[in-house]
Design a protein that fits this description.
This protein starts with a helix and ends in a 12-residue tail after the last helix. By secondary structure, it is mainly alpha-helical. It contains 11 helices and no strands.
Length: about 270
């Protein structure tokens, strides 16, 4: 039995609508950005405490980090069929376990290195699967500034290499402009009016730091450039601080302080 043209058109329309609906549902099911935001709200306090060498506070903040990691992993580790997606979650879990052990052993250097690996795994994961994430623009800026800072501290740099330093400064400026003018979803990143205002103020401080760096570059004085570069990292840390949930880290520890850090290591 054949269908009349009207019936066929209706069936085709319904089929297309079903495909679009399924595609949208599938897309939504693997949009792990909200889970990543909650993870970073717990991850950044741990990283900041380790960065400052405050291992006592890092040990407390680990409890909330592991709670958010288990939530993210349980919900999204098998949300995609690609092996690269699952491998990334596996690698992150292993790196976190190593970081927890280093924190428990008061080894800030190893702990920080492992946390950096966790951050890099997430960056690579999001890049591979086209996940737009505001913090990645900040991390790109950080990478550009690290290269510039390392070069500016080289006392052997001469005028023949100055053009390379200028190029690095241009790349740093571009990376900062990408951060400044990238739209940010305040609802996704859970930035209330107070936090949004604080972020704006911290970014203005960084803009001033970058402007002073440009003046130092124009002076063609390596020592002045190195001096200006030293102010970038503290200002950058202040920006990242806004995205961490330090209150939740402290509160979660207080509610679960009977447990040991050893029990928090990834299974």
């Amino acid at each position: 039995m054949s269908l009349n043209p009207i019936a066929m058109k209706t069936l085709l329309t319904l089929t297309i609508a079903s495909v679009i609906l399924c595609a949208n549902i599938n897309c939504q099911s693997v949009d792990a950005r909200k889970g990543m935001v909650h993870f970073d709200q717990a991850f950044l306090p741990v990283m900041m405490h380790v960065y400052k060498g405050d291992m006592y506070q890092a040990k407390k903040a680990v409890f909330y980090l592991d709670f958010q990691w288990q939530k993210l992993r349980n919900q999204y580790e098998f949300a995609r069929k690609e092996s690269q997606w699952r491998d990334a979650f596996q690698n992150i879990g292993e790196r976190l376990g190593d970081a927890y052990a280093a924190i428990d052993g008061n080894n800030a250097k190893i702990a920080f290195a492992q946390l950096e690996q966790v951050k890099d795994e997430f960056i690579t994961l999001r890049e591979r699967f086209g996940i737009d994430y505001y913090l990645d623009y900040l991390y790109d800026f950080q990478a550009a500034t690290n290269t510039l800072m390392e070069t500016s501290e080289d006392e052997m740099i001469c005028l023949l290499q100055w053009e390379d330093l200028e190029q690095m400064a241009l790349e740093t400026n571009q990376a900062w402009q990408d951060v400044r003018f990238q739209p940010i979803d305040v609802e996704l990143y859970e930035l209330d009016i107070e936090k949004a205002s604080l972020l704006k103020a911290k970014m203005q401080v960084m803009t001033t730091v970058i402007n002073n760096l440009n003046k130092a570059i124009d002076s063609a004085n390596r020592a002045e450039v190195a001096k200006a570069c030293k102010k970038i990292e503290p200002a950058f840390v202040e920006i990242l601080w806004v995205f961490g949930n330090f209150d939740a880290s402290a509160t979660y520890y207080a509610d679960n302080k009977s447990e040991s850090i050893g029990n928090q290591i990834i299974r």
